[in-house]
């Protein structure tokens, strides 16, 4: 079953189906939110709120997009709200030191499968938030431009622009840091 | 970090907290609307009319029951879920939202007939958050409201007021199904969003005062038109 089918099943009273949805998206959602809040405990709390929205507002999801897109869209809004409330962090603030637990490092390793991905992730805080979010969704979550557009409440064309500008900005940063591209 | 099972428990705790919070906000919205009716200091954008405001507030009791239903059902409390299910009206929230939107289209032509120059304003949720959180954008937003001839009337000798207006978002040339109802009462803003996020939100509008809200100039025709939407039922409520 896919996530949408699990959610339908949950709405019909199958609690185990909701556990399956949590299994599917818990780690990547925490990883995504942590890009904003830079604190894994906070990221975990916000991720839990995102899943809670599925319980509290069952009609919020209209089944005309993927559940993953919907969850990430909620996550982005909630993360931004959190940052506004704190008013001391900026999105993808590279100055904030991140403490990582062993569990977090474990699933981060699952997502960042190679050195290139790790370099990309580390450089994301150094570029504009919209570029970083677009790149994260497209490269780490493997979303299409259309899906990323739904998460960010933008058009596919705008995502296309964000990705292109994000890549250009990243290239510049990596070159300044002495990164040499493989032939 | 929590393990998977602890995280799942946290999710249900959060669901319960959100649900309880929203019941409180819904109740507050009702008090706000009732107080507004009592002192005849109601503001609304003419396109949607007051009957819709009332309908929207009523529909929230069904949301509360529905939330309770899913939470109880998820927790395996079948009896409690059945009770919540019974409390749900036949008409769903989604139906109400659709009706709200359809009626809004109808009101548009009614407004044209009345020769009133009110217009729909378009604001996305991101912009709205900015309106509340950022003073300069809040001022800009209020200026825009003023230019739209939205009714705002302050009851003589009474500092309380309520401002209600609805917004439909626009994507390019087309309306989306995102319809929002905003209620501003004193320094509290209640936001009702229909569409992607069926959610009540409550924001403290610290930079708003009764004076700057009520400084909006209104045409007599517009005030008159809005008052025609006041129904006896709503006044009694």
Report on this model:
- The complex is a heterodimer of chains A (183) and B (237).
- Chain A has 2 domains: 1-111, RNA polymerase sigma factor, region 2, helix turn helix motif (Rna Polymerase Sigma Factor, Chain: A), CATH 1.10.1740.10; 114-183, Orthogonal Bundle (Arc Repressor Mutant, subunit A).
- Helices cover 70% and strands 0% of the residues of chain A.
- Chain A is built from 9 helices and no strands.
- The longest helix of chain A is centred in the N-terminal third of the chain and has 23 residues, at 15-37.
- The N and C termini of chain A lie far apart (42 Å).
- Mean pLDDT of chain A is 82; it is low at 88-94.
- By secondary structure, chain B is of the alpha+beta class.
- In chain B, 56% of the residues lie in helices and 15% in strands.
- Chain B has helices at 4-39, 50-74, 78-87, 93-114, 125-133, 135-147, 210-214, 220-227, 232-236, and strands spanning 162-171, 174-185, 188-194, 199-204.
- In chain B, helix 1 (4-39) packs antiparallel against helix 2, helix 2 (50-74) runs antiparallel to helix 3 and helix 2 (50-74) runs antiparallel to helix 4.
- The termini of chain B are far apart.
- The model of chain B is unreliable at 24-64, 88-139, 141-170 and 175-237 (pLDDT under 50).
- The interface between A and B is large, with 36 and 35 residues.
Keywords:
heterodimer, A: 183 residues, mainly alpha, Rna Polymerase Sigma Factor, Chain: A, Arc Repressor Mutant, subunit A, 2 domains, 70% helix, B: 237 residues, alpha+beta, four-stranded antiparallel sheet
The biggest sheet of chain B amounts to: 4 strands, antiparallel
**Rg from alpha-carbon coordinates of chain A:** 17 Å
Sheet/helix structural class of chain A: mainly alpha
SSE string of chain A, helices as H and strands as E: HHHHHHHHH
Number of helices of chain A: 9
The CATH class of the largest domain in chain A is identified as Mainly Alpha
CATH homologous superfamily grouping of the largest domain in chain A: RNA polymerase sigma factor, region 2, helix turn helix motif
The string of secondary-structure elements of chain B, in order, is HHHHHHEEEEHHH
Q: Identify the CATH architecture of the largest domain in chain A.
A: Orthogonal Bundle
- Taking pLDDT < 50 over at least 5 consecutive residues as the criterion, the unreliable ranges of chain A are 88-94
Radius of gyration of chain B: 19 Å
Name the largest protein-protein interface in this structure: A-B, 36 and 35 residues
């Amino acid at each position: 079953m896919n996530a949408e089918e699990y959610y339908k099943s949950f709405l019909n009273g199958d609690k185990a189906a909701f556990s399956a949805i949590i299994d599917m998206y818990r780690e990547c959602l925490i990883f995504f939110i942590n890009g904003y809040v830079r604190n894994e405990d906070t990221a975990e709390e916000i991720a839990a709120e995102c899943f809670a929205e599925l319980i509290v507002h069952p009609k919020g999801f209209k089944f005309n997009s993927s559940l993953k897109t919907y969850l990430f869209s909620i996550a982005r809004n909630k993360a931004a709200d959190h940052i506004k409330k704190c008013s001391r962090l900026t999105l993808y603030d590279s100055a904030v030191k991140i403490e990582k637990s062993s569990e977090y490092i474990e699933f981060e390793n699952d997502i960042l499968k190679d050195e290139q991905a790790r370099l990309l992730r580390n450089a994301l805080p150094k570029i504009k938030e919209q570029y970083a979010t677009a790149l994260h969704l497209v490269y780490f979550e493997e979303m299409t431009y259309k899906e990323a557009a739904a998460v960010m409440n933008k058009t596919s064309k705008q995502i296309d622009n964000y990705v292109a500008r994000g890549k250009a900005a990243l290239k510049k940063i990596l070159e300044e840091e002495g990164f040499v591209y493989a032939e | 970090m929590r393990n998977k099972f602890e995280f799942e428990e946290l999710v249900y705790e959060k669901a319960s907290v959100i649900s309880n919070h929203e019941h409180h906000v819904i109740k507050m919205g009702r008090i706000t609307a009732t107080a507004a009716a009592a002192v005849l200091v109601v503001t609304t954008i003419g396109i949607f009319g007051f009957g819709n405001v009332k309908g929207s507030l009523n529909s929230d009791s069904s949301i509360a029951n529905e939330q309770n239903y899913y939470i109880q059902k998820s927790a395996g409390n079948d009896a409690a879920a059945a009770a919540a299910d019974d409390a749900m009206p036949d008409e769903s929230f989604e139906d109400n939202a659709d009706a709200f939107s359809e009626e809004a289209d109808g009101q548009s032509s009614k407004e044209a007939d009345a020769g009133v120059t009110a217009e729909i304003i378009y604001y996305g949720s991101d912009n709205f958050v900015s309106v509340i959180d950022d003073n300069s954008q809040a001022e800009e937003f209020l200026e825009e409201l003023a230019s739209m001839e939205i009714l705002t009337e302050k009851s003589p000798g009474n500092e309380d007021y309520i401002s209600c207006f609805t917004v439909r978002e626009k994507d390019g040339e087309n309306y989306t199904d995102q319809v929002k109802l905003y209620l501003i009462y004193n320094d509290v803003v209640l936001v009702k969003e229909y569409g992607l996020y069926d959610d009540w939100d409550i924001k403290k509008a610290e930079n708003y005062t009764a004076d700057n809200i009520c400084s909006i100039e209104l045409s007599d025709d517009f005030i008159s038109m809005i008052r025609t939407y006041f129904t006896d039922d709503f006044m009694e409520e």
